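Human: We require from you a protein record containing the residue sequence and its fold in token form, and nothing else.

Assistant:
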Amino acid sequence: MSYVDGFVLAVPKAKLDDYKKLANTAGIVWMEYGALAYAECVGDDVPYGEVTSFPRAVQAKDDEIVVFSWIVYESRESRDAVMAKVMADPRMKPDWATMPFDGKRMIFGGFKPFMEL
């Protein structure tokens, strides 16, 4: 069964094009090193909940949009190997001064699927 990394973050609307360029590069790198799928999604129907929600989770501001992303791997072992290569790739060395989002508010984690249809 596969393994999935998931991400949720807030991107300033004014920097969305910059984020898309970064995401495109990241997707190319991840796929080169063995990811089976890479997806980046811009929030379209993500209401601000009373108790919790995607916008609350990343402390999205009025001028920000929620982005939900995931990467699929063959297995946890494959993910660990791919991730090591991605993190060592010079294309993935961020310039924190020009990052198009606040990495401190990004939520991420690895998940073991229990069902795949």
Remarks:
- The chain has a mean pLDDT of 96.
- The longest strand covers residues 3-12.
- The two ends are 11 Å apart (CA to CA).
